[in-house]
Design a protein that fits this description.
The protein has 120 residues and is of the alpha/beta class. It has four helices and five strands. A five-stranded parallel beta sheet has the order 3-2-1-4-5, with helices on one face. β1, α1 and β2 form a beta-alpha-beta unit.
Amino acid sequence: MLTKEFSRVWFIGEVDEQAVKKLKEELFKALSRGRRRIMFRFYVSNPEDNSYLDAIKPVLIENTALSVVVEGRSITKLHRDLADLSGEEEVEIIVGSRLPNLPELTEAVNLKVGEARGDA
């Protein structure tokens, strides 16, 4: 299953109610594009903190059609992950709360960067 095509969503920062709404939107976008798989990757300051799993339960509960993969990674790995993207991979990046030492996100190919907050 992991070798099949996924809609990829990378989330940076803390997951709050606004972020959950944005993640639900991404889930529905994937469905509307005919995708059957989505991968949410969360970049967090503390890799030991799994609070994002509790925060995204509403997203997972509403999903009945997609295969979902959830992964947590340290924010320190973001720059390398951006560099490792191939020119054909498309990734939606959502920035919640800004984290220190956040690399420039627009330097990578095929990134769509959005804010989780409507007023940010």
